[in-house]
User: Fold Enoyl-[acyl-carrier-protein] reductase [NADH] from Adhaeribacter terrigena.
Amino acid sequence: MAYNLLKGKRGIISGALNEESIAWKVALKAHEEGAEIVLTNAPLAMRMGEINKLAETCNAQIIPADATSVEDIENLFSKSTEILGGKIDFVLHSIGMSPNIRKGKSYGDLNYDWFQKTLDISALSFHKMMAVAEKQDAMNEWGSIVALSYIAAQRVFPDYTDMSQAKAVLESIARNYGYRFAKLKNVRVNTISQSPTMTTAGSGVGGFDAFFEYANKMSPLGNASAEDCANYCIMMFSDLTRKVTMQNLMHDGGFSSTGITEDIVEMISPKS
Assistant:
């Protein structure tokens, strides 16, 4: 059921790769709620994915952009305002990649050049997007900017390696730029710390299946799905959350507040 929560709003959604992507679900939901959107992803990711199908469904144009390139981001925002016919009301940053994880590097044996690339792609790109939006005065008053994060920013998950640092930096950028953008234009900036989710990116982390099941057993409400996350993003883009900013919002079925559950006790207790 649609509620017209984003009727008349314009947005940029990054990171939609295929139907499993959270960004894909957000784009569909934003379109359903009445928004006009532009889709963006890195050129390589676009060749690997199915973004053209999403664009057709959402009646959206695609602007390729390397999120580490300020020049590409400048083009993204200037063209988006031109295509959509006005300033931007919401932005989704759903961008993350670790060459170290892809290459199976352990935390004690990281390639530091790749580590810097992880930070640039997964965290500094968020700052670059907001800095460009500010300089171009591309955001509408009371706009909303959301980035997707993960609880590994606060806790240790060994196989998540350098992405843990990237998510911690991402959340810090949200707080600092959230303050700046609030004072400048009442724009709010938040991160959503999502449950482990069955996406192409998520399943690339070692031991993901076991961890997904563990998190599900540790969450009283169970893991939040990609569709659940899309609904949360839409709420954050809407006018219903105008005074929420600089927050890392846990969207994990209660995982982050749970010490242990009966399911975990039952799983590890000796069978009589």
Q: What stands out?
A: The longest helix spans residues 161-185. DSSP finds ten helices and seven strands in the chain. The domain at 10-268 is CATH 3.40.50.720 (Rossmann fold).
